[in-house]
């Protein structure tokens, strides 16, 4: 069966955002299946728009595809409309690149980033056609592995996963695929045993389970599984050929990891605790990656990623250099997490250039007492000073993240969040009258391997009550937007995060009752979770409640680096109101990591001490402002699209060309002003699904380049499916492309009854008028589009059956501009009685005024 044709012809025309499933993004890897021995699917259990930005997946994709004998493809959780189409047609979930069913892979690797993706893991396994539980799979099924933070407490997912990978993936992934390549023809048992022998990897199916005294059911792997750690980030592979999506993402930028780990010691933060000690990428390596990433992707923005990017030892130098490199390409750099100090504002100011969309800080708690409990020790005055500095530097909008439900929290602590925001707003408004603050209030969920792993989580009603306090306190302030995470999401997260094997039954039951994509609050189905809790008699109170310090924990057989004794001591210090210092600038706190990684801890401490001595003298980060020169040349390209690329929406099509122009390194002219836009225009907006060999794109250039050179450069920078055929210089003052369009010509291919279609063609051509309904301008208080009736007969220049070589009939349709209107292909398809989802349309000519 030709899966690709099936997906392109029958699946993608039926979904609302097909660009997520094309698999032909720039830098996507396609290999000849006959030349590879091992096929891998990297599976992200959430929507593409959230998953494509996951840096870990890009890293593993790049590493695996370096092996000539291995082909790694990708799959993301199907959106509800794709899932419905797959179910209706009894089609399995497929990989994006080759559209192959996941069942035909040798290995499927999930990343477990959040408990709210666990039902989607089950959904993807189920849609792939695999039995949900590992014990029900046979040698005919692919091996299912999982890694990421979720592997630190594997129990809730242990029955569904064949092998877990604990810790950093860069080194172990090569060992896993080499191992599977070696036992490719072996039995399933041999494969699992081979994987189980790799350090940091273990196969739950090979081990018994045991019931603990408190009723928990956990694995008994018979050994401690120690997390894998990459010692040197410079030696770890980082993707330069970052995948460049067509579809719009939630965070649409390339990421470069500059540091891994965090030693601030926030007691709620699992990410910081499980990645100690802090390891840095050298400034030279980052510079090279920034340069390569801009050149090889065409991205407009690169984010310098870490848990706290301002802590980078030479942050001023790094950000200044990266921003300079970005400005040279009319691009930007950003940092996802800003520290609460004025240096962070200075950095953000320097790298953001003229953009002032918003700054984000994470105070987490609003009273000094509670901030000491969570080990995030700063004064309110610090926050006010930072916000004032932001206002002075031109920002109007600041977002502040807080948590409710933290251990020892009282109503006074909750009310203090509102008071802090009010005071911050008042101080900000003294500098900028238009200042605004948005809160992001989440609920604390205790996570394994943190000092708060023994703490209790507040229940649903209590979350709502504390949220209501904040809503009431902030309501009178229109310049403060009260944003918060839904109580339902936190509840589901808390039911699983510290769960044992019983959580697996809960997850499976919720999935069978319809739960999936739980991370989207509008898709989270609490009805399904409620039924699952009842059906499995899940011990909700015990799962959310405080745990005795001496009770066994489901993840006791995992060694994440930090010792249980140190975590207990930190929990005691939290309750006693004691602060623990950051070990980068102070003495070692004996967290336990040094036992296995003494060299890494020593390197970290030496690096920060040495940098603290010489950064004092570093000057501020300064960047020259850019003055856009006048355009000197206008080049017109004839462009087109085929295959997967025909499913791009108009916005995706424009973005794809702009990124291709950036990769081609053509000196595209930009508008002046706060949000500089490239001066690129198109003749028409091709509808989703239509092929074209005759659209036009005008590009204004700030330096002269021969059109044939422009053509060659652009041809080399195009993703599969986009075409550029010719380039010619046109006068700078030529009329705009859209206003120059006088008509278009199309071929319409369809499986239909020829005499019937011929009859309809004659009827259309013989009619003096042909009325169709179109959306008019929005009217009324709700701005709903009015429906208007339009006579398109004058705009139909030609309509005729054409001889066709295939078994599909072919209609040639030509439209000309009359009274500012063209006839549309979807109107003609409807008038001819054709099924739009089974019709292929190709634009073969666009007529431009003055070029006929
Ligand atoms: S062992 Fe000491 S130096 Fe190493 S991460 Fe822990 S506290 Fe820091």
Strand content: 15-25%
For the record, the count of structural domains works out to: 5
**What distance lies between the first and last C-alpha atoms, to the nearest angstrom?**
45 Å
Shape: globular
Strand tally is: 29
Question: What is the CATH architecture descriptor of the largest domain?
Answer: 3-Layer(aba) Sandwich
Q: Helix/strand-derived class? A: alpha/beta
Average pLDDT taken over every residue: 93
How many alpha or pi helices? Answer: 27
Reading off the top of the CATH hierarchy, the class of the largest domain is best stated as Alpha Beta
CATH level 3 topology of the largest domain:
Rossmann fold
Main beta-sheet annotation: 8 strands, mixed
The residue ranges in which pLDDT falls below 50 over 5 or more consecutive positions are none
Percentage of residues in helical conformation: 25-40%
Mind sketching the topology for me?
Blueprint: H1 3-11, E1 38-44, H2 48-51, H3 55-66, E2 70-76, H4 80-88, E3 107-111, H5 118-128, E4 143-147, E5 163-165, H6 172-182, H7 188-196, E6 201-202, E7 208-211, E8 217-220, E9 225-226, E10 254-257, E11 259-260, H8 270-273, E12 279-280, H9 283-297, E13 301-305, H10 315-328, E14 332-334, H11 342-352, E15 359-364, H12 368-373, H13 380-392, E16 397-404, H14 411-429, E17 436-443, H15 460-474, E18 480-484, H16 487-497, H17 501-512, H18 526-536, H19 540-544, E19 558-559, H20 564-576, H21 593-596, H22 598-615, E20 633-641, H23 650-663, E21 680-682, E22 691-701, H24 707-715, E23 722-730, H25 737-740, E24 741-750, H26 754-766, E25 771-779, E26 784-791, E27 796-802, E28 809-816, H27 825-831, E29 839-848
Parallel strand pairs: 1-2, 1-3, 3-4, 4-5, 9-19, 10-13, 13-14, 15-16, 16-17, 17-18, 22-29
Antiparallel strand pairs: 5-6, 7-8, 11-12, 20-22, 20-23, 21-22, 24-28, 24-29, 25-26, 27-28
The protein binds iron/sulfur cluster (SF4).
Iron/sulfur cluster binds at residues 263, 276-277, 583, 588-591, 593-594, 601, 605.
């Amino acid at each position: 069966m030709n899966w690709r044709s099936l997906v392109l012809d029958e699946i993608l025309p039926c979904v609302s955002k097909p660009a997520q499933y094309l698999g032909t993004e720039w830098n996507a890897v396609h290999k000849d299946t006959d030349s590879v021995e091992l096929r891998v699917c990297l599976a992200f259990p959430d929507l593409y728009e959230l998953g494509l930005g996951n840096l870990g997946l890009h890293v593993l994709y790049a590493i695996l595809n370096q092996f000539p004998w291995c082909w790694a493809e990708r799959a993301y959780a199907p959106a509800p409309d794709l899932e419905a189409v797959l179910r209706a047609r009894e089609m399995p979930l497929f990989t994006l690149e080759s559209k192959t069913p996941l069942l035909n892979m040798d290995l499927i690797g999930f990343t477990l980033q959040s408990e709210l993706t666990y039902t989607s893991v089950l959904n993807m396994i189920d849609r792939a056609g695999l039995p949900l539980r590992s014990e029900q799979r046979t040698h005919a099924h692919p091996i299912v592995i999982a890694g990421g933070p979720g592997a630190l407490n594997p129990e809730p997912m242990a029955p569904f996963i064949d092998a877990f990978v604990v810790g950093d993936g860069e080194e172990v992934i090569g060992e896993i695929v080499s191992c599977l390549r070696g036992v490719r023809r072996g039995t399933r048992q041999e494969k699992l045993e081979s994987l189980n022998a790799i350090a940091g990897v273990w196969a739950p199916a090979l081990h018994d389970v045991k019931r603990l005294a408190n009723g928990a059911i956990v694995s008994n792997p018979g050994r401690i599984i120690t997390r894998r750690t990459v010692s040197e980030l410079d030696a770890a592979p980082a993707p330069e050929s970052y995948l460049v999506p067509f579809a719009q993402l939630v965070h649409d930028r390339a990421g470069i990891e500059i540091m891994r780990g965090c030693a601030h010691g926030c007691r709620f933060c699992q990410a910081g605790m499980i990645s100690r000690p802090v390891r840095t990428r050298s400034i030279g390596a980052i510079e090279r990656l920034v340069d390569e990433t801009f050149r090889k992707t065409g991205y407009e923005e690169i984010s310098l990623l870490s848990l706290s990017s301002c802590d980078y030892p030479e942050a001023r130098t790094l950000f200044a250099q990266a921003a300079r490199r970005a400005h040279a390409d009319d691009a930007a750099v950003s940092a996802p997490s800003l520290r609460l100090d004025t240096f962070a504002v200075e950095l953000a100011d320097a790298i953001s250039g003229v953009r002032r969309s918003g700054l984000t800080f994470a105070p987490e708690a609003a009273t000094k007492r509670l901030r000491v409990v969570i080990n995030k020790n700063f004064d309110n005055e610090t926050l006010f000073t930072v916000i004032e500095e932001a206002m002075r530097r031109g920002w109007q909008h600041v977002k502040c993240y807080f948590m409710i439900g933290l251990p020892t929290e009282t109503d006074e602590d909750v009310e203090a969040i509102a008071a802090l925001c009010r005071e911050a707003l008042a101080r900000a408004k003294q500098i900028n009258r238009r200042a605004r603050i948005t809160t992001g209030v989440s609920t604390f969920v205790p996570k394994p391997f943190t000092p708060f792993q023994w703490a209790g989580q507040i229940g649903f009603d209590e979350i709502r009550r504390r949220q209501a306090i904040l809503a009431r306190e902030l309501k009178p302030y229109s310049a403060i937007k009260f944003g918060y995470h839904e109580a339902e999401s936190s509840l589901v997260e808390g039911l699983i995060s510290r769960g044992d094997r019983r959580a697996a039954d809960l997850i499976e039951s919720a999935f069978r009752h319809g739960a999936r994509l739980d991370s989207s609050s509008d898709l989270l189905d609490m009805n399904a979770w409620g039924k699952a809790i009842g059906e499995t008699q899940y011990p909700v109170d015990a799962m959310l409640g405080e745990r005795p310090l001496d009770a066994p924990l489901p993840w006791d057989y995992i060694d994440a680096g930090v010792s249980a004794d140190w975590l207990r001591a930190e929990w005691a210090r939290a309750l006693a109101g004691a602060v623990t210092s950051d070990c980068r600038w102070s003495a070692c706190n004996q967290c336990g990591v040094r036992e296995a990684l003494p060299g890494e801890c020593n390197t970290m401490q030496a690096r920060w001490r040495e940098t603290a001595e010489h950064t004092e003298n570093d000057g501020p980060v300064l960047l020259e402002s850019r003055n856009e020169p006048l355009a000197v040349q206008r080049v017109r390209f004839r462009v087109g699209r085929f295959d997967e690329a025909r499913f791009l929406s108009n916005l995706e099509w424009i973005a794809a060309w702009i990124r291709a122009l950036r990769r081609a390194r053509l000196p595209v002219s930009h508008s002046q002003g706060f949000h500089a836009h490239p001066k690129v225009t198109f003749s028409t907006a091709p509808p989703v699904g239509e092929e074209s060999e005759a659209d036009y794109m005008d590009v204004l250039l700030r330096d002269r380049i021969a059109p044939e050179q422009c053509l060659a450069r652009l041809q080399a920078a195009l993703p599969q499916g986009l075409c550029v055929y010719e380039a010619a210089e046109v006068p700078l003052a030529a009329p705009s492309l859209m206003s120059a369009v006088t008509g278009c010509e199309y071929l319409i291919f369809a499986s239909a009854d020829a005499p019937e279609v011929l009859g309809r063609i004659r009827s259309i051509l013989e009619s003096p008028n042909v009325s169709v309904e179109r959306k008019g301008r929005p009217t009324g208080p709700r701005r709903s589009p009015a429906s208007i009736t339009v006579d398109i007969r004058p705009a139909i220049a030609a309509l005729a059956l054409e001889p066709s070589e295939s078994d599909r009939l072919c209609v040639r349709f030509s439209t000309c501009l009359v009274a500012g209107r063209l006839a549309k292909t979807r109107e003609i398809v409807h008038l001819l009685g054709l099924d739009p989802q089974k019709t292929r349309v190709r634009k073969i000519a666009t007529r431009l005024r003055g070029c006929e």
